[in-house]
Write a structure and sequence with these properties.
The protein is α/β, with parallel strands linked by helices. Helices cover 37% and strands 16% of the residues. It contains 10 helices and 13 strands. It has a 7-stranded parallel beta sheet, sandwiched between helices. The protein has a two-stranded parallel ribbon with strand order 7-10. Helix 3 runs parallel beside helix 4, helix 5 packs across helix 7 and helix 5 crosses helix 10. It starts with a strand and ends with a helix.
Length: 338
């Protein structure tokens, strides 16, 4: 089976490539913007006609799209996450290769959900920010394309190579700095947020399974269990051997205080973690109060948890790697910088 992998150098794409290369039945071709891609092509600016000619020449049986942007303004996110997918869909419709499309979506397409609930694929998407909007638009393009296609909505991927800008990546970096400086106290914020963390290697297994299956539509990829970020921080401290204390700093919203069940009034994410001995200043409190009422950077609210029954039933997929193993691998990379 010849597979065209788009975005093989990204966080998810690297593990998908490794998984596919381990399958002797797969002939893999990587397409991307970097010099190390087998074929250089920028989906955000390239024409559908040029990509169609390449598809007709290579004739893949499966096209997997792991490319996209997670940061930037609305225009940049739309260009890399929506326009790029429009180019793929148009090219596949024009081509005679008849390839199956596996598109990687994300949980940000759903937006926030009720605490305690599991989000199934039939939930009405209400993305809370431009990233989720751009990914949802891409999903709609795929579903309306008439192609043999499946969209995997990946919840919160973690594991080795976790980007430094992600919550767990920033958490590991803050802990590394605290241990390096001998600081016995680590002050963090936004730890009441709960997310469904799924290991990136399990995501790669799901992509491989989806490429071989006949499943169409949307399939959630997660663990089916939300974990509070403060609990993940405690696990990370244990696997890192950090003996200091963890103190949570959450800025209240309009006089509200974090609830007993971890639903903070205004989580500030982890952008400022790792500032030893720092306290929230009056200026920071005023800036927080001036922020728009939707405070979660990923647009997913205080809680997200996947309903993963469709992945089990239609892909034969279940997660295998637990969060403690994922965090241990994240810490191993961070510790190498001490």
């Amino acid at each position: 089976m010849r597979v065209l992998l788009i975005g093989a150098n990204g966080y998810l794409g690297r593990y998908v490539a490794d998984r596919l290369l381990a399958d002797p039945a797969v002939q893999l071709t990587a397409l991307g913007r970097g010099d190390d891609a087998d074929v250089r092509f920028d989906l955000a600016t390239g024409s559908p006609g040029a990509l169609t000619r390449f598809l007709d020449a290579v004739h893949p049986g499966v096209v997997i799209n792991c490319a996209g942007a997670t940061r930037g303004g609305a225009r940049e996110l739309t260009r890399h996450n929506t326009v790029a997918v429009a180019t793929i869909c148009e090219s596949l419709r024009r081509s005679g290769c008849g390839a199956r499309l596996v598109q990687l979506g994300c949980a940000a397409e759903y937006g926030p959900s009720q605490p305690g609930s599991s989000t199934a694929e039939d939930a009405v998407p209400r993305p809370g920010g431009p990233y989720g909007v751009s990914k949802l638009a891409a999903t709609e393009l795929v579903l309306g394309s008439g192609l043999d296609a499946v969209v995997l909505r990946v919840f919160s991927p973690v594991g080795p190579g976790t980007p430094a800008g992600s919550p767990l990546g920033r958490l590991a970096e803050a802990m590394r700095r605290a241990m390096q400086s001998g600081d016995g106290e680590l002050k963090l914020s936004g730890l009441g947020v709960q997310r469904d963390f799924v290991d990136v290697r399990d995501v790669a297994r799901a992509v491989h399974a989806a490429s071989l299956s006949a499943a169409q539509g949307v399939v959630n990829i997660g663990t089916g269990r939300a974990v509070r970020l403060r609990d993940a921080a405690a696990v990370l401290a244990r696997v890192a051997g950090y003996g200091g204390s963890l103190h949570e700093l959450d800025v209240p919203q309009h006089g509200q205080h974090p609830g007993a069940h971890g639903h903070p009034g205004r989580p500030q994410g982890l952008a400022a973690i790792g500032s030893p001995r720092s306290e929230a200043t009056a200026e920071q409190l005023a800036a927080a109060a001036a922020q728009p009422p939707y405070p979660y950077p990923d647009g997913c609210g205080a809680w997200q948890q996947a309903d993963v029954r469709t992945a089990r039933d239609r892909l034969g997929w279940r997660p295998r790697i637990n969060l403690e193993e994922s965090l241990a691998d994240i810490w191993m990379e961070a510790a190498c910088r001490i």
